[in-house]
Amino acid sequence: MPSSRMRWLLRDETGVAAVLVLLVLVVGIAEPDFLTRSNLTGTAHNACYVGLMAAGMVFALALREVDLSVGGVHALGVTVGAGSPPIPASAATRPPSTPRSG
What we know:
mainly alpha, 4 helices, flat
């Protein structure tokens, strides 16, 4: 038999999940392109960075070490990355050149 605290936690999590499902359905009905495979894939791809940071912060919070610099470091990395020129895929996979002997 779950304790009253466990029942409250389950009720709270169920409410959040129900609101999320309702929100996705309402937006999907209002904007049919929202539920396309490419949009859902793009949304998941963009959310994975925040999810990875959140997963890393779980350890800091579990050890009662609060580190507020994670958001700032992420913002700095995005800003610097947005200003740097992209690396072509061919340059990233090309083997290093060897000097020619003449």
